[in-house]
Input
Amino acid sequence: MNQLYVVGIGPGDDKRITAEAKHTLAGSDLIVGYTVYTELVEKQFPEKTYLATGMRQETERCKKALEAADSGKKVSVVCSGDAGVYGMAGLLMELGASYPEVEIVVVAGITAALSGAAMLGAPLGHDFAVISLSDLMTPWEQIERRLRGAAMADFCICLYNPSSRKRKDYLKRSCELLLEYRLPGTVCGLARNIGREGEYTSILSLEELADTTVDMFTTVFIGNSCTKQIKGQMVTPRGYHLRK
Output
């Protein structure tokens, strides 16, 4: 059976791509992906053959990768972060049902929730929810229900895709909703351009976050009722010191 690899490349820098991902890409005949991600990988593997497509061409990209794998090539589809977290793993497996001779193998990567959290300190030290604010494939009403559910359960919340040209006010709307359940001083954090030029972090309150401008390259962290700032870092205690 032919194998097609879905590879999470983390933020895209050489330090934060796993050894397994590097090994898989090094052995690939063809590397497929969104243009921005193939350009990142090409810096490390310039000798490889690439097939890149733009935004909103995910289905076409995956079909081309499956066809190449079906023909006998060793193919890797690259995704930023982890391939299974808002990545191409699920779509490839759905489309792969029509290619019985191709096995989909997922190679884990470091998703932005984890790499961004490491930059900020330990904001996800307890139970947390990851929610995308993109309504491209999920209705806003459903996103709002998920935000309310996470807020009511006192989860730490990590927000992906917090803003875009068409969704400039989505983060503000989300913060206003969360302020129904969280105190204005709730500790929050931003991690932008993780592992890339212009890497930046900031710790601020939920009230301040509501009036902060971010972009698609920013990952937002909203603390729970116990999250605090310690020596300039965002920390969510798990409660070890309370254990008897």
